[in-house]
Structure prediction request, 1132 residues.
Amino acid sequence: MATPVSLSQVEKKTIESILTNKKEEGKLITKVTILNEKKKKLEIKTLILSSNRIFLFTDSKGKLSAEHHYLEITEIASQSENDVTIKFKNQNVMKMNLDASEVLKVLYGTLMSTFPGIKIGKTIIFNITPVSRIPSIFQATSFKDIQGCGSFNLTYRSVCDHLGVQPLSSILWDIENLYPFNQVREFNLAEIYQYSFTDLKAILLSLSYNTYFQSFQSNGKLSNEDLNLLAEVFKENSSLQQLTITNSQASKEPIITLLQNVAENKALHLSHINLNNNSLENKGILTLGSSIQTFSNGLTYLNIENTSCSGKGLEAMFGCLTANSSVCGSLTHLNISNNKLESYGTSGLCKFLSKATVLQQLLMSNTSPVYSCLKTSSSSIQTLDFSGNKSTSTKESVIDILSFFKQMSHLQTVNLSRIQTTPDDLKLLFSPATSLLKCSSVDLSENDLGDGGIIKLCEIMYPNSNLHHLSIDGNFKTKSKLRARAIEALINLIDDNTSIESLSLASGSGKYQLKGDLMPLLLSLLKNQSLVKLDISGNGIGDSGALAVSKILWKNQTLKSLKCDGNDFSYTALKMIKSSIRRNEKSLTILQLPLSDISSILKNDNNGSSHEKIIKTIQDIQTSIVINYPNNIHPIDTSSGGLTPTKQPSIGSLAGIIKKPIGPPSTPTKSSNPGFQTLPKRPTRGPLYPGRATSGAVTLTDKAQINASTIELPPLVSRSIDLLMEQGISSVGIFRTCASATALKKIKTRFEAGEDIDLKAENVDVDTVAGVLKSYFRELANPIFPENLHEYFFQAMRQPTNEERIQSLKDIIDQLSPLECKMIKKLFHLLHLISMEKDVNMMSPENIAICWAPTFFRSFASELLPINSFMIVNYFDIFDPENKPISSDNSGDADTDSTQSTCTTNNNLVATSLSSPISPSTTPTKSTDNVLHTTVEVSRSPSHERAHTVGPTTSKRPLSNSLNNNGVSSNTPPLPNNVTPHHNTMPSRPSASPIKRPPTMGGSLSNFAGIPLSSHSSSGQLNNNNNNNNNNNNNNNNNNNNNSNNTTSNSSNSSSGKSSSNPSPTPTPPDSPSMSYIGDGKSTLRSKRFSRVNRVSYSPVLPRAWTNESRTVSSLFQDDLDSNSDSSGPSL
Prediction:
């Protein structure tokens, strides 16, 4: 124990006065015996250990004998329980005889409470013997004096006392009030107000001896002396993990010293280094690399942007990074922008990227890489900034860097601005050879694409369903004739690709303003429900554009962020915007004020009379946004646990490509096919049509219990399919011919407005109805079969047998919602019926698949075509097995090569009705007194030798091969009057509606399916005179020679055409397909095949309006013969 203190009144008064003046608080007062080296004798003095210093007072009058600060101590030694020796930096030594244990505990506790970061054993050495005394001194010491922020307040006060400077009250207040409030551990020099060099020295020295702060930031000018002080910090500190020194404007030497101290301080573990905008040059970069190479805990962030280093310096640094495996496995962010990679640096970068396994962000803008050296990359990269990297020579091209981009399989954000790419280069960059087409954010600003380039870009981006943000600032340099098409392509892109949430069309640094050309795009946003963020700044659209913007803000409830500065808005424009935001409570939540326009308005107000009105309008805009903000906050349902990002499918592994469902998990359906995995429930998608939203998630069990009759199809779908089943089955080139754009738009608009249109009553053209139906499915927010199901379709088609393929496809269809199932079931029924009439309408399952696969799958992959075709052919097995037709048995019918067709003609109505095995009349045709019956013989091909029976039947009966006048088989006994014959599900064609034939059959059709018909009138119906002549000619032909080649019939038809009311038939268009005649009597289009799907019909780059001149069948078929050849068919 310390000797009890007995002080006189004089000593007590003197000591209290000194401690009060020095603002010290005594922690230990004791009497000690000290050896006086000069007098060689022992003296008794009073020892006081305060919060910052050691005091010695004389025993008689209390006079101050010695004073030392704790930071001056270099060593504390104790050889026994009764002696303590303290050495100081000025070589002074204090040897004392006292109770050593008590003094050592107070010394150690005070040092660790005031300077938590001081290094015992390095900064101050404790030499205590025997060693057994150490636990009783160190471990039993409590640090009760440690306050908030790791006692940084005490540290700073003590350091200021040591340096003899006044502490800054701003720092003390921040430490006591601000930093503990939010537990901020980031020390930023920019947050300190008016400090001098000595103040900075005290601050940095405090950081050296304190462990509270974990990050140091300096974003301004620093002198070389300041950096030298900072270097001492990183020599002593052990808690800092982040270092940021930017724009210091200092030389490289003090930064090199700092980096060397970082390498030597083994207790320091930096994970974040930002040294951008410092002139490090190659020497500094090499020192940085050497320091990082010594890191044992890795590095997560490195920014050396604009550090004036060349390729050789970067190559050396990348070599150091590659040599440290912990860095390769921990670095997630790398920024080397505005440095020169050249060939050496490019090679070094690729070597490092091949080892970097977790790198997510690579920023390398304006680095002048050598394209031919960019060979390898990292598959983990998600964000890439490649802006400003033009090819360094004319020999380099985009082809050289395709492999570099291809290896970034997880790339999400890419910046390709200012690389001076061409539209053809874009097509290569966003081809399947790279991973760029899967990016959610694409920046192609200031590439001078022009109007033609924008059109090509829209065509490239059209199928990208992952795209969320697109920036094309500054690409409209020169206005051309294609400007209107370019704007329309953008409109179609954002309308059809509903995944795009952000679009930037700013003028860019080139100030290329769109002005009035932007109006169509703005007006299209009135109905847009996908765009959330829009940037149209700098386009000079004026008050007329402001009016369009105000209407958007009034109507649109999806757009939440708008940037529209630099558009020459007036005070009137601001008032319109204010009113629109007030009227729409779900309008914007973020509006960057048009400051440049406001500045111009205030500047032009010479009298200042409108200043208050302008300011009031701006305040009202901000107030309206604040008021509307709560209306735009949607609660997040966390019951389902959120969505899991979809992984890319891999061959043979299908478990990871389906998103987790929204809502309660569903019970998966077990598949009967062991080789095909059962699909989990797909999440419920958004509205299937504008204004029509689906219900919540439905499990497979619930869906099985839903009565199909209770699900109502959209009127557009049901009405269109019903009409096409009734009138469009045999229409040549159905779904391939182009409809009138005006008629198609009118029908769509009426359906979208909620009107239930009777298409049959309004006599709407079949091609128009087909176009409306196809447009509906093409413009869905999500395709019927989205991308995450494609791999399942591929796996299904790899099954060994048809039964397994069908079962696998049924499992996929079961994952759709009840409404989707009912829609595609009805649609595929229509497609199946159309394919059964392929000899008439020229639409085989393969050709139908070419039309519909890009719509169903939202993809142009050729591998999807046979899948769609297979589903059409096997419709009943996949969608409707209960009503599958019963195949006919090969019974010995009398004659299978001919069938009877009844042509009924009266005085006022001329109609032709053809009964075929796949489309019989639903009711027998009754003869009347005023009806003339003419029986003609129809030649049948082997493909027609099949029967279809739908629904439960009493017996397996093939459809008749020849029908009598009542529609009943002439080869079988007639049915009783009370028995209705069974027919297939294809609806019958009304007898009053003539069969549509290709418009280029020429003057004779006697050999077409063996049916002698007269030439068509201009209205598309048969003429009475022609029909009568045909009947007479047919009778003559039958009487003269039944086995002839109908030469007489041909000539008769020609003569009848001359004697009709229309002496010259409608001329055949020169581009229309011709009919060819084959030896078996069948007719077909000349080329006998369709062309591949034309991407223009699915592309946003062309106007949706088609002229009547373009509505020719020839534009959809390939003609292998000369265009000058005769299109009327061979003369027989």
User: Anything to note?
Assistant: The two ends are 134 Å apart (CA to CA). The first strand starts at residue 26 and ends at 36. The first helix runs from residue 9 to 21.
